[in-house]
Amino acid sequence: MLRCGGDRVVIVGGGIAGALLAKTLESHADVVLIDPKEYFEIPWANLRAKMEPAAVERTVIPHTEYLHHAKVVTASAVSVDDSVVLTSGGGGAVAYDFLVIATGRMCNRPQRRDDRLRMFEHDKARIASSNSILIVGGGPIGVELAAEIVMANPEKHVTIVHGGPRLLMVMGEKASSKALEWLKSKHVVVLLDQTVDVTAAAGENVNVFTTSAGETVNADCHFVCTGRPVASGWLKDSFLGEHVDGEGRLMVDEHLRVGRLRNVFAVGDITDVPEAKQGYLAQRHAMVVSRNLKLLVKDGGGKTAEQKLHRYKASKAAITVTLGRRDALSELPFMTVIGHIPGVVKPRDLFISRTRRMMGLKLSTRHDQSMLQREQH
Ligand SMILES: Cc1cc2nc3c(=O)[nH]c(=O)nc-3n(C[C@H](O)[C@H](O)[C@H](O)COP(=O)(O)OP(=O)(O)OC[C@H]3O[C@@H](n4cnc5c(N)ncnc54)[C@H](O)[C@@H]3O)c2cc1C
């Protein structure tokens, strides 16, 4: 068992929120990060990675590259009690003084970085060798992937099959119709209110799919971009199970504490904070919890720190969907815009330089530096 001595912070999940939290806390506490992968990945770069794997290698970063003091346990958490996290494989039991749950959404990624990069190369080869591509799911991920493909390869036939009545249901109706219009202008076929069971038709060589409405889609390859459930299954039978809501999210208070437990926090997509589930908001959660944990650790968990704890306020944040390298669709609180203007903000560098800088990583290439300068202007 990995024992603790009063200031041990165990962070479960090394994604956008957990990795940043570990980075900002590692000089202030005894931090242990538990993650089944050996690396941190910037998720919003992984659609472009399917087109240009080499350009986004810097978005898959070994935990040991940005963490210098924290201990990394490469394993999945399988259960937890009021003082110990149990992990699978060789990770064993990890004792904690403070616990942060940051397991986001369920996602099967290889343990090793090399294997993850090979997945991008494999996807690139599949796309390159296909004339027709089926995308299942018309949420932000499906729409962004379709756009990446058709902007780089206008000759490819892309079809989106989407179960809902409109694309981008996490955004308003205006955004949905603008996205539909944009995709149609790029000759993407969009089939709404239909589903397709790709597992029933599984196999590398299957290239005819039938939708629930009986339509036939010819596709040399397909990508499933439907929503992924929250990764809270491992908590349900634990002492935190009573704080998991009907959608699998952890119920948190204004300090992002779970069930008002003094030493248990949650950050990122796993929380029930009533706002869009976005990476930059997950980063804000991490910063609030980081400040709170610094206070609690410094004060030995005493009452003074309790009174000073920072609050998190749910955000009415903007959502931006990238449409290839130049265009984007942004839903702001007061308007919805599409085209080159919102495209100036996100699509070129996908905030990769900024995210690397937040993780204390060098902007090692000239490309990184010029992109950062452009973002700042
Ligand atoms: C393709 C794509 C594009 C996106 N585009 C944007 C965008 O443009 N802007 C934006 O703001 N947001 C975007 N998002 C959303 C954003 O990525 C998420 O909101 C963000 O990743 C949530 O961060 P998180 O740390 O809560 O979870 P995640 O980043 O999902 O990380 C969860 C971590 O927990 C680990 N984990 C899971 N289960 C366990 C377990 N049992 N034990 C230990 N570890 C575990 C996982 O391995 C992972 O490392 C996008 C998401 C995707 C997938």
From TrEMBL:
Residues 8-275 form the FAD/NAD(P)-binding domain. It holds the Pfam family Pyr_redox_2. InterPro entries: FAD/NAD-bd_sf, FAD/NAD-binding_dom. GO terms for molecular function: electron-transferring-flavoprotein dehydrogenase activity; flavin adenine dinucleotide binding. Signal peptide: none annotated. GO terms for cellular component: cytoplasm. It comes from the Eukaryota. Putative FAD-dependent oxidoreductase. This is FAD/NAD(P)-binding domain-containing protein.
